[in-house]
Write a structure and sequence with these properties.
Helix content is about 80%, strand content about 0%. It has about 90 residues and is an all-alpha fold.
Length: about 90
């Protein structure tokens, strides 16, 4: 796993280096070293990160779908308001 991928997973989860380190039993300075390519996580830690990445992607996809539904719903409401306003004129 590349340093950029580690940082991307942490940021996708919305975690600080301290919080991310707590998930892996690692000090925040270790996380910093991972993200700068100065150290590498263990194979077990990489496997956990991959699971977290999948979870983050699934949550992001769910959030995007929810936003899409909200926008469609808002569009329908706006169209109804416009129609009702136009009908009164």
């Amino acid at each position: 796993m590349t340093p950029a991928a580690i940082a991307a997973i942490r940021k996708a989860l919305g975690l600080s280096q301290v919080e991310f380190g707590q998930l892996f039993g690692a000090h925040f300075m270790t996380i910093s070293k991972w993200e700068r390519g100065l150290a590498k996580p263990s194979p077990y830690q990489v496997a956990l990160m991959e699971q977290f990445a999948q979870t983050a992607q699934a949550k992001q996809a769910e959030a995007q779908e929810e936003v899409k539904k909200l926008l469609i719903g808002a569009g329908v409401v706006a169209a109804l308001i416009w129609l009702l306003t136009a009908a009164k004129k």
